[in-house]
Amino acid sequence: MMAAIAWLVVRPRLVFAGAVVLVAVVILGGTYFAGRDEGARSVTDAIERQDARAEAEADGARRDVRQCADRGGVWDVATGTCE
Asked: Which residues are listed as membrane-spanning (predicted)?
């Protein structure tokens, strides 16, 4: 233990440089993980928006087919129209 204390006293610049490097690694690591989480969140949000649009379009198409049948028409799948 005394040898470690003596080493720290004799080499204060090296200890200071080590502390600076440790702080830099902690800051850079935190920044990296925060950016990674933000990127994942933005991708997830984009996928959820795309899913919501697809669901709305499918509901609209389903409604069009039902309305066609309610009017006594026949839905043409190839053209997407009611005849």
From this structure: 14-34
Structure tokens at 61: 């198409």
Nearest to 8 by CA among 22, 23, 19: 19
Neighbours of 82 (CB within 10 A): 15
- Placement of tokens 């080493």 in the chain: 7
Tokens found for residue 52: 């919501």
Q: Are 61 and 51 in contact (CB under 8 A)?
A: no
Can you list the residues of the chain whose pLDDT is less than 70? 7, 10
pLDDT of res. 80: 85
Structure tokens at 54: 């697809």
Say how far apart CA 7 and CA 4 lie, in whole Å: 5
